[in-house]
Amino acid sequence: MTTERLGWLRKAPGKVATARLQENLEARNAREGRRYELSLSVGLARYDPEHPCSIDELLAQADRAMYERKRGNQES
Q1: Rounded distance, CA 13 to CA 54, Å?
Q2: Where are the domains of the chain?
């Protein structure tokens, strides 16, 4: 793995993980003979120790991010 790629991973590990999950789902859904399609909804929130918040607030942020992303996908 190149240093450049590791730099991206350090900057946005959640986005990298989400992209890899999405790629794997798309590959699985592309297989012939599938009777159903799998999908994924993800919302990311980052904990900042300099601006602490409760786990409930962090989950609420992730939930809002997930619904914003879902709305964005529906509009495209």
Answers
A1: 22
A2: 1-40, 43-76
Instruction: Give the containing element (helix H, strand E) for 52.
Output: none
Whole-number Å distance between alpha carbons of 8 and 22: 18
Please state, rounded to an integer, the average pLDDT across all residues of the chain: 83
Closest-CA residue to 55 (of 42, 41, 70, 63)? 63
**For range 34-57, the mean pLDDT:** 92
State yes or no: pLDDT of 2 exceeds 50.
no
How far CA 66 is from CA of 17, 29, 33, 35, 51, in Å, comes to 15, 22, 30, 26, 22
Find out whether 45 and 65 touch, Cβ atoms under 8 Å: yes
